[in-house]
Design a protein that fits this description.
Blueprint: E1 4-6, E2 13-15, E3 27-28, E4 35-37, E5 40-42, E6 47-50, E7 56-61, E8 66-71, E9 78-83, E10 86-91, E11 98-100, E12 104-106, E13 112-114, E14 120-125, E15 136-144, E16 151-160, E17 163-168
Antiparallel strand pairs: 1-2, 2-3, 4-5, 6-7, 7-8, 9-10, 11-12, 12-13, 14-15, 15-16, 16-17
Length: 171
């Protein structure tokens, strides 16, 4: 870090090396100098995750220009990934789908469908071979209703890692 302390009536300030301070050649408080870490400028006091799976939580000491990293990890409700251009521990994505009525469906992306088929349908399941995800599958069985051109859901089964819950409508 190339900072030099300058005196001023309002206190000591540091002149940051222009290649490290994107704000240009002006005086800033010493903590404001920032750090250069892995080719990226970090502001003084900035905390950030580092490592392939967020193994370290780091902080830039703007006064010394050094980055200090401590072993850490994401919580069980978080995953290490990039969100909005920022790498780190972020809440696991969540989405909801639903099925109701004769049957009306809302998909995970919020789209609505009305479907009158009369078979078994997979409503939701794991769609990749990612071993980190437990197997789950939700299946609905629809049948015609009273001879009308509509169907109703008469059975729903939920399978999570081989544990099966079956809910059925006795007609």
């Amino acid at each position: 870090m190339h900072c030099s302390i300058l005196s001023s009536p309002s206190g000591p300030f540091a002149q940051c090396h222009s290649s490290l301070d994107p704000r240009g050649d002006h005086c800033v408080p010493p903590i404001g100098c920032g750090c250069l870490h892995e080719g990226r400028y970090r502001q003084g006091g900035e905390r950030f995750w580092y490592g392939e799976q967020c193994q370290s939580l780091c902080i830039c000491d703007g006064t010394t220009g050094f980055v200090r990293c401590n072993p850490s990890s994401c919580s069980e409700q978080e995953t290490c990934r990039i969100v909005g251009g920022e790498y780190g521990c972020h809440p696991q994505p969540r989405a909801t789908c639903s099925a109701s009525g004769d049957p009306h469906y809302t998909s995970f992306d919020g789209r609505n469908f009305d479907f009158q088929g009369t078979c078994r349908y997979i409503l939701s399941t794991v769609c990749s071979d990612n071993q980190d995800l437990p197997f789950f599958q939700v299946v609905a069985k629809n049948e015609a209703w009273n001879g009308l051109p509509v169907s109703i859901t008469v059975e729903v089964s939920v399978n999570v890692s081989g544990h099966l819950v079956l809910v059925s409508l006795a007609l």
